[in-house]
TrEMBL record, chain A:
Natural source organism: Streptomyces sp. NBC_00119
Domain ABC transmembrane type-1: 29-208
This protein's record includes keyword Transport: yes
The family this protein is said to belong to: Belongs to the binding-protein-dependent transport system permease family.
UniProt-recorded name of the protein: ABC transporter permease
Gene Ontology CC, one term: plasma membrane
TrEMBL record, chain B:
A Pfam family hit: BPD_transp_1
Record keywords, A-Z: Membrane, Transmembrane, Transmembrane helix, Transport
Organism: Streptomyces sp. NBC_00119
Domain ABC transmembrane type-1: 27-208
Name listed for the protein in its UniProt record: ABC transporter permease
Membrane topology: Multi-pass membrane protein
Transmembrane segments: 31-53, 65-86, 92-112, 143-170, 190-211
Keyword Cytoplasm annotated: no
GO cellular component annotations of the record: plasma membrane
Main subcellular localisation: membrane
GO biological processes: glycine betaine transport; transmembrane transport
Length: 259, 226
């Protein structure tokens, strides 16, 4: 048991802090999750049409990918500050900035997923009389889903981390606690909020991984038989830090189909 | 859009560029942080990644490090380091945090670049009687070069961005113009600082992309479309 004095002696780990400041911590976590979830959901809603557009009109692909990459280069503090005149000090400022960051990852992965759908599958569906909407909904989307969800996972994890910077406008979820802790030299608060933030990222990642397994049960069946091949594949797969791990997913899919 | 014209006014006011809190001094701090960090990170990450890539081991490590790096909030690390005893040593927390975030992209890209070199080419080089060192210098390194440079570029941009956050932990750099603007509730200054930081990041990205292309050892050789 930690002594009740750990708040006074300013220890890094402090049970008393956890007990007495629970409502504050819960509020921060709720705000953090809210901002992250809103950003990723809005990001998905914007990225999907953009990816479709980029796929159908080749002329769009370059500018769309180029623009979203440029957005990613802008440091987060600058991004939030640039949006200040438009939104004032508000949660929508933070969410808008984060949405812009998710677009880079999401558009790239969505596009990679859609482009990886084998032409034979598309041809077969067309031959069976599928219209463009039904083709997209029933054939292309399920086949592209693993790569698309991989993009959502990367976007979510980095958004959880970036939300902390929202503390500059007081809407940073756990980041706000971290900054307050810095100002008042409150070690327990800084460490607790930081650990919670990492736990949130890991938790969100696992949750989405579970969702991905549920939504694409067919990849799981195949993955059991082709695990060895996948492992050898992965050793050389380019998981680019710019978030384009679509290649990995595409290879996995190929391996799954071959099995 | 009074904030934008205000930001323009701020940027064109000579007094804002001079002195200890002026743009030139903050820019110098920013470049000093970023430059030293990038050099140290390259010295740590590149030899390790190139060596691991050459012997073909440690692939899981290289990929996992970059995945884990995404989950760690930069700001939290900076603040944590500032509150530790290290925080008493001036800029040391900033340097450590920056190196921490620059190493993963360098490591991952350099390693992947080495592993993506066509095995047949390496075999052929060995068959011609090249030693391990020769294969490394004359075959693997030139072919891996574009990926290695991509890593350097990513790391540089990441360092520039993270150096901005150092201001939130009370350190120098261009971010300080933004945080000072927030404290003074001076929106034009906030926007002006943000424009400067964004421009610097884009400029560094552009210059490094250009330099990477010009310095490519495979430049002008036929049949190499990597």
């Amino acid at each position: 048991m930690s002594s009740p004095n750990c708040m006074v002696t300013n220890e890094w780990v402090c049970g008393e802090y956890l007990r007495t400041r629970r409502p504050e911590l819960v509020d921060a976590v709720v705000q953090h999750i809210g901002i992250t979830a809103a950003s990723v959901v809005i990001g998905v809603l914007i990225a999907f049409p953009l990816a479709l557009l980029a796929r159908h009109r080749r002329a769009f692909a370059g500018p769309v990918l180029g623009l979203t990459t440029v957005l990613y280069t802008i440091p987060s503090l600058a991004m939030f500050s640039l949006l200040l005149p438009l939104f004032g000090l508000s949660a929508s400022l933070v969410i808008t900035g984060l949405v812009l960051y998710t677009l880079t990852i999401l558009v790239r992965n969505f596009l990679a997923g859609l482009q990886a759908v084998p032409d034979e599958a598309r041809e077969a569906a067309r031959g069976m009389g599928y219209g463009p909407v039904r083709l997209l909904w029933e054939v292309e989307l399920p086949l592209a889903l693993p790569a698309m969800l991989a993009g959502v996972r990367i976007a979510t994890v980095s958004t959880v981390a970036l939300t902390t910077v929202g503390a500059i406008v007081d809407y940073g979820g756990l980041g706000t606690l971290i900054m307050d802790g810095l100002d008042s030299d409150f070690k327990a608060q800084v460490l607790t909020a930081s650990v919670l933030c990492v736990l949130l990222a890991v938790g969100a990642d696992l949750l989405l991984l579970g969702l991905q397994r549920r939504l694409t049960p067919w990849t799981r069946v195949a993955s059991g038989t082709s695990r060895i091949r996948r492992r050898t594949d992965r050793s050389g797969s380019p998981d680019r830090p710019d978030g384009g791990s679509g290649d990995t997913e595409r290879r996995k899919e190929k391996a799954a189909q071959a099995a | 859009m009074s904030a934008i014209s205000g930001a323009y006014d701020w940027l064109t006011t000579e007094a804002n560029w001079q002195g200890d809190k002026g743009v030139w001094h903050r820019l110098a701090e920013h470049l000093y942080f970023s430059g030293v960090t990038l050099a140290v990170s390259c010295l740590i990450a590149l030899p390790l990644a190139l060596w691991l890539g050459h012997i073909g081991k440690g692939g899981g490590l290289a990929v996992n490090i970059s995945n884990a790096g995404r989950a760690v909030p930069t700001l939290a690390v900076l603040v944590l380091l500032t509150l530790t005893p290290l925080g008493r040593h001036g800029d040391l927390p900033t340097f450590i945090a920056l190196v921490l975030f620059a190493v993963p992209p360098l490591l991952t890209n350099a390693y992947i670049g080495m592993r993506e070199v066509d095995r047949a080419v390496v075999e052929a080089a060995r068959g011609m009687g090249m030693s391990g060192g020769q294969v490394f210098r004359r075959v693997e390194l030139p072919l891996a070069y574009p990926m290695v440079m991509t890593g350097v570029r990513l790391a540089a941009v990441q360092v520039i961005a993270t150096a901005t956050l150092a201001a939130m932990a009370g350190k120098g750099g261009l971010g300080r113009i933004i945080t000072a603007g927030f404290n003074l509730q001076d929106t034009p200054q906030v926007v002006a600082g943000a424009v400067l930081v964004a421009l610097l990041a884009l400029l560094v990205e552009g210059v490094l992309a250009g330099a990477g292309r010009v310095l490519n050892p495979m430049k002008g050789r036929s049949g190499v479309a990597r």
